[in-house]
């Protein structure tokens, strides 16, 4: 059974870069044909898919966030990371990492971590 665990700072200042890491256990991030996503949920709002990195290393981004988002991976540590630049208070949210079993479900992945709260504030 795959397990995903988000980690990173809970408080980020405006204009800085938010960096989160997802550590995966119970399976390799290079296994065909899994897609590893980042999703967030601002307070009082719905889930927003941010982007994903495929088993192959290919990346996919939400067009509305693409200019500020970068997703990468470290296969030796079985981790993938999210970087979101130039953050504002509107980026305050619970951030989740997740796994989709196909590209068709990349925006609605089956497995998700417990989430980590990130607050953007000075």
Gross geometry? globular
The overall pLDDT, averaged over residues, is 97
Number of helices: 0
CA distance, first residue to last residue: 39 Å
Structure summarized in a few sentences:
This protein has 122 residues and is mainly beta. It has strands spanning 3-7, 11-12, 18-25, 35-41, 48-54, 59-61, 69-74, 79-84, 93-100, 111-112, 116-120. A hairpin with a 4-residue loop joins strand 5 and strand 6 (59-61).
Features of the shown structure:
seven-stranded mixed beta sheet, mainly beta, four-stranded antiparallel beta sheet, 122 residues
Protein architecture, described:
This protein is mainly beta and 122 residues long. It is 0% helix and 48% strand. The chain contains no helices and 11 strands. It has strands spanning 3-7, 11-12, 18-25, 35-41, 48-54, 59-61, 69-74, 79-84, 93-100, 111-112, 116-120. It is globular, with a radius of gyration of 13 Å.
């Amino acid at each position: 059974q795959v397990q995903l665990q988000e980690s990173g700072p809970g408080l980020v200042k405006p204009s800085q870069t938010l960096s989160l890491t997802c550590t995966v256990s119970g399976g390799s991030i290079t296994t065909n044909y899994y897609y590893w996503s980042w999703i967030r949920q601002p307070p009082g709002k719905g889930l927003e898919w941010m982007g994903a990195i495929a088993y192959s290393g290919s990346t996919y981004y939400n067009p509305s966030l693409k200019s500020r988002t970068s997703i990468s991976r470290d296969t030796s540590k079985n981790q993938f990371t999210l970087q979101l630049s130039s953050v504002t208070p509107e980026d305050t949210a619970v951030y989740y990492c997740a796994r989709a079993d196909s590209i068709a479900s990349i925006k609605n992945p089956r497995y998700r971590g417990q989430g980590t709260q990130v607050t953007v504030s000075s």
